[in-house]
Design brief:
The chain is an all-alpha fold. Helix content is about 70%, strand content about 0%. It has one domain. Helix 5 packs antiparallel against helix 6, helix 7 runs antiparallel to helix 10 and helix 13 crosses helix 15. It starts with about 20 loop residues before the first helix and ends in a 10-residue tail after the last helix. The relative contact order is 0.18. It comes from Streptomyces incanus.
Length: about 400
């Protein structure tokens, strides 16, 4: 379930108090889409990555490409999406208040919509779905909506800290096993046969893996919930609004994040894919998860600094439209990759090296940026966003910009 996207930002934000979108929030979503695509592409296209094991005999260029994806993207971007989900939650509450609407039934319908989309996504396309997690854990966010920002931050720190420490301790115990995790070649062969078979075997394989998707909801729950709460706190303090944070604060957070998250990511990738032995894999995962929020924070702060630079307008114009259509883009990524990987289309499962796959990822992402920009010039909502908003409002969205 590595990468486990993340649709924490897949929920379209509502408006701010000024009834305008926050370009920084949309740009952050646009960036996160690239990280999600990088991780999910390996899960959908590569049987070894899907099983979380090293591919024996892989070419150096492919092993190195996978190492970079693991270090730079895995476990990082679903946290960013989840943070943005919590931030957007506060904007949606403000939107409901302005309209004198009851927020609770709106959000319950939205959660049901996310859960339904997630079920379809996991069964038909990719069982590493995140939407089910958001649909369920969003209910916790609804119950916690009145807590203070300070309480939200403390609660998030405890939840994620305990989660990360427990995983790291379990990984340390596993490091005493000299045999490591090993490769279940039979399971790999079964997956390859199923996904290259026909549409029926693909569907059956996804159904067989559905319990893993449910397990993934449970495993990801602490990290997602912690990020939700941090986003809730940040939204209540309007930290992503214009001038919500100073340049010095962003630089300081980015520096600390890189100093903590960088070494953690290096160890995580080295334990997962080498040069460390396989018995270090679970310890590496624990350390990687424990330090992932620091690197995620660094990414967000660095992008916000870029948006304030002389090139900020150009970067924003590219990323923000993709972020506004994040749900549509997320689902489209799964459709494209599943058609390429399975018997739905080209049956390339296990046949494309990671280096070539990353070239494909860049092409798909670039195409999504261009299409999102063109679409946003003509339409207010993406197709999936329009559907989810229709469910949320129990009717078609009004024409004005009440997102």
């Amino acid at each position: 379930m590595a990468g486990l996207p993340a649709a924490g930002g897949l929920m379209s934000p509502s408006t701010s108090v000024s009834a305008r979108r926050l370009p920084g929030v949309d740009a952050l979503r646009g960036l996160a889409l690239l990280g999600i695509l990088m991780v999910n592409s390996t899960q959908i296209m590569d049987p070894y990555a899907s099983e979380g094991v090293r591919e024996p005999g892989a070419a150096f260029v492919d092993s190195f490409a996978m190492w970079l994806v693991t270090a730079l993207a895995t476990t990082k971007f679903y946290l960013l999406f989840s943070f943005l989900f919590g931030y957007s939650f506060t904007l949606q509450m403000a939107s409901a208040d302005r309209e004198n609407a009851n927020f609770t039934p709106r959000f319950l319908r939205r959660s049901l919509g996310l859960l339904s989309l997630g079920l379809v996504h996991a069964v038909l396309l990719y069982n590493g779905d995140i939407l089910m997690t958001y649909g369920l854990l969003g209910l916790v966010l609804l119950c916690a909506r009145r807590i203070t920002p300070a309480t939200a931050v403390k609660t998030a720190a405890w939840i994620y800290g305990i989660f990360g420490v427990v995983l790291t301790c379990l990984g340390a115990l596993a490091a005493f096993d000299p045999h490591g995790s090993g490769v279940d070649r039979g399971k790999i062969a079964e997956a390859v046969s199923a996904y290259r078979g026909d549409a029926g075997t693909v569907l059956q394989a996804n159904l067989d893996r559905f319990p893993d998707a449910v397990l993934g909801v449970l495993i990801m729950a602490p990290g997602v919930l912690a990020a939700f709460l941090l986003g809730l706190a940040a939204g209540k303090r309007a930290l992503l609004a214009r001038d919500g944070t100073s340049r010095s604060q962003l630089i300081r957070c980015a520096t600390v994040g890189l100093l903590i998250g960088g070494p953690g990511a290096f160890f995580f990738a080295s334990a997962s894919l080498g040069p460390l032995g396989e018995r270090w894999q679970y310890l590496g995962l624990g350390v990687g998860i424990l330090t992932a929020p620091a690197l995620t924070c660094a990414y967000a702060c660095l992008l916000l600094l870029l948006l304030r630079s002389s090139r900020g307008d150009g970067i924003r114009q590219w990323l923000a439209p993709a972020g506004r259509l994040a749900l549509t883009n997320y689902l489209t990524q799964s459709v494209i990759l599943t058609v390429l990987a399975t018997a739905y289309g080209f049956s390339l499962y296990g046949r494309m090296g990671t280096a070539a796959l990353m070239v494909l990822v860049c092409a798909v992402y670039g195409l999504q940026l261009a299409i999102s920009t063109a679409w946003s010039r003509r339409f207010r909502h993406g197709p999936a966003e329009w559907l989810l908003r229709t469910v949320t409002l129990a009717g078609p969205p009004r024409r004005r910009a009440d997102r």
